[in-house]
Amino acid sequence: MRTITAAAAAALLAMPFLPVLLPGPTAAAAAAGPPMGWSSRSLGCSVSEQSVRQAADALAPLAPAGYRYVIIDDCWLAPQRSGGALAPDATRFPGGIAALAAHVQGKGLKLGLSLSAGTKACAGGGAGSYKSEAADAAQVRAWGVDYVKYDWCNVPTADFPGQNVQQIAQALYPPMRQALGADVVFAMNNEDGSTVPWLWGQGAGATTWRTNVYNRPIADSYPTMADIWEVNQLRAEYAGQGSWADPDLIQAGRGGMTETEYRAQFTLWAMGAAPLILQAAPAQAPAAVVANPKVIAVDQDRLGAHGTFVTTDGWYHVLAKPLENGDRAIALFNESDRATVISTRLGGSRHRVEDLWTGAVTSTTGELAAQVPAHAALLYRVRAGREQAPPVVTFEADPPGFLGDDRPSVLEPGVSGEIVTRITNTGATARLRDVEVTAALPEGWRAQARTPSRTGSLDGGETFTVKWAVTPPATAAPGVHELTFHRGEQRATAVVTVAKAPGPGRTYLSDLAWTSAKNYFGPVEKDASNGERAAGDGRPITIEGAGYAKGLGTHAPADIEFYTAGRCSSVEFQAGIDDEVGQTGSAGFEVWADGGRVAYSGLLTGAMPARKVTASVEGARFVRLVATNGGDNATSDHADFADATITCT
């Protein structure tokens, strides 16, 4: 994940804070909750009047859930002003903005536009609002616009000698806020973190302010989403009613993450009282994720609190958020790559616990625990009281062997392996009776309980463990598979990897299937150089004129993992920078056996011949080949593991 150096963080926080004189959010703005709606960002400069109308039509069914704003994100402006006034692009928006606003409002929604605090818009070439704030604000209000996203692009910093970017932003944003009036949503999109808007956005009257530390929109990927969320949590103390921390758009429906990961984003954004602005076309955003009324209620809660950490260790997080009626929202977030149990103490004697994603209601004497799938966030509404409900039950499948173990268990095709399930009467508010666990596996898989799969009762705090012999079919495809176990209506899922260890003797690694592969540019190539970025675009491996028919072509940094099951003894390869990049490029070549590095090539450059690397991997269950960046620009680091072999018994 991206990290911020201590020096950089200190530099940002040390910037002078200049107080602004604007009033805070109005009572009406505070009561409205964080904005919800849709943004045209994915359309880029293909946005048009027709596409916005279509989006409004598709968003209208979500209006009862709170989605109100249809926001045009750039590329709506004409290249030049008309008589000194802003003008919409006549080709993209021939009917004009006022007519479009009327159409949107006729659907029970509101229209939003992007403007820039600089001399030009961020995209599309339109005019910025620099030195025209009052006139531009009056114009968009006259058109019927209810939301302005105010960007930080093309800012003439030379006009502010001796001032840093924070001071410039504090000079440029308040005039637009004042001119728009308190009834228009003012979204400060100064996503260049050096403006530190969290320190002064609320005082400047901003409805929302971005929490990035670098100028880059959110990507539709789990690592980026989790990274941005972590940064957003650092701003929690500055957010509140009517002035919300904005970690960027909701990605559900775009296709780059799983539904579990989209639910995690929606949960974490709700805990942070963040704006819920969809980036996918409204018709593509899954209603099961984005229209859950109980999760939205946590986001829109009138108390306006930003959820904060109860506990966190970098992978496993517990967050709590007080709610207006005295309840608490509790989120359990598993950032790691393997399911694990996350628990927290609620305090007091007895609590009602409602799972806001499943609707299940349970009770507990004080402990809340659940097995949280990899990349998932579970969300609960907790209320103190003695309401009768079944006890909280923690149901685990394939629990990790130690805290921090985020590698899925591995099963070999046609070979029986052990999978464990555990049931704990965590809530301890009543005895569990007739507890039985059953397995529901993919077609062709077999599961047999090695220990009893049923028990007559389970008192508070007691655990019931079942050991299963699970056998994938001999034809099972390598990769990730889900195994589901049931206890009544409750289920637990084990995510396992099917992989086959190398056979006896000496085998080329390029002839084996890896369990994972990471590469800086494009995929890792087998028996070819890395090439450019597309799959299969490599050339024959060549290092200082010597050719190799076999090997792995990577672009450093790269990391390739193989399952070896403790049956292999050594790895050998010729390490070098491929001739396709000339004499540029540099990399280090490493071999890792389980958790330890067992060989290192030293730094190699494009001007050096191949260097033989030999590593002992005796007893290792996993072996990794790693190419590290040589400390310079990574553009030319085409690192070859030529003639890479592994010897096994």
Radius of gyration: 28 Å
Q: How much of the polypeptide forms β-strand, as a percent range?
A: 25-35%
Structural class: alpha+beta
- What strand line-up does the widest sheet have? 7-6-5-4-3-2-1-8
The largest sheet, given as strand count, sense and whether it forms a barrel, is: 8 strands, parallel
Q: Give the uncertain stretches in residue-range form.
A: 1-24
Tally of separate helices? 10
pLDDT averaged over residues? 93
Percentage of residues assigned to helices: 10-25%
**How many DSSP E strands?**
39
User: How would the global form be characterised?
Assistant: globular
Distance linking N and C termini: 37 Å
Can you describe what's shown?
Residues 503-648 form the Glycosyl hydrolase family 98 putative carbohydrate-binding module domain. It catalyses: Hydrolysis of terminal, non-reducing alpha-D-galactose residues in alpha-D-galactosides, including galactose oligosaccharides, galactomannans and galactolipids. InterPro entries: A-galactase_NEW3 (IPR018905), Aldolase_TIM (IPR013785), Galactose-bd-like_sf (IPR008979), GH (IPR017853), Glyco_hyd_98_carb-bd (IPR013222), Glyco_hydro_27 (IPR002241), Glyco_hydro_27/36_CS (IPR000111), Glyco_hydro_b (IPR013780). This protein has 649 residues and is an alpha+beta fold. It has ten helices and 39 strands. An eight-stranded parallel sheet has the order 7-6-5-4-3-2-1-8. The protein has a six-stranded antiparallel sheet with strand order 9-10-11-16-13-14. Strands 27, 29, 32, 34, 37 and 39 form a six-stranded antiparallel sheet that branches. 46% of the residues are buried. Residues 1-24 have low confidence and may be disordered.
